[in-house]
Sequence to fold (327 residues):
Amino acid sequence: MPSSTRRRRVDDSEDETEDVAPPSQRRSQHTKSTNRATPSSAAGPSGARNNAAASSSQAGASNGADLGAELRPQPLGREHVPNVRSLMAELKSQDQSILKCIELLNETAEQLAEAFRAQDECNELERADADLRELIDAQAEKAIRRKVLDEIAQDLHTGVDMDDPAKRYKEDVQTQLDTYNKQTSRQKYAKNTDYHNFKNTVWVTKEDGPMPLVKDLIPAEPGDDDASDDDDDVQTGGVVQNFRCPLTTNILEDPLSNTLCTHSYSRAAITEYVAAGNNRCPASSCMANVSMRSLKQDPLLVKKVAAFKRREEERLIARRQTSTVLY
Fold:
């Protein structure tokens, strides 16, 4: 079991009557931690990776708060539902620090992939990948804790009295954590949106062609079985991205994406197209509507287009050099 998970395991031997900081003080401490979790990455790829790792560690540490200590071993009734809901809200608010760390790691991954794109392997990228997995695990644990608290609140609301809510909380959380930790890496991360975005950022910067399915980028482990994949689950990856505007056929410039379909356009071209009274997506065979309201900026697409342009320029330079040698 990963060390981060061991740190966060519920300690059954802990004194359940231990005093904890009041909610207002904990929120103040969390705010300070969140502010520290978004350091600048201006120091370059290595500095950014170190900052991201430090932020990841802080987020993981804050995840270990023992809310069971607040559920004292005393009876609870319906009148205590707001208190339990308050604990759920506190856990939810802590998710923001994790999301900021994930955002920082994605920025770090882009810098590292750019700096080491000529190398097949990069230890810094591998460590950033490990940091992201730890953050995803922290998210999963927070979700489990909220789920257990919600179940307790629902039981209290229906009139179920609890003599020892702290014991139930700890036992239910531990049971669900054990189930989560028994999953393989593919089962934990292959369908996670944040992990897909991370892998996609690295792939677009370093590689050509469509990215494989994320599960194919994660080494198989005992317990992985392709035949057991649920056909109803979305498998991310393996999509060919078109970086050319369907109106100009040139590489996208200041792209806008249509939220009603999967197509993107150069801003000037689509603005003129819509202003002329057209309301159908100009991409071939697409029947989706398009309007200025349905268009949005996509920062990730902007980065992908920039990487695509760079690779196209490199290919052009390589072809010219080859032609010079031949002739």
In short: Residues 81-115 form the longest helix (35 residues).
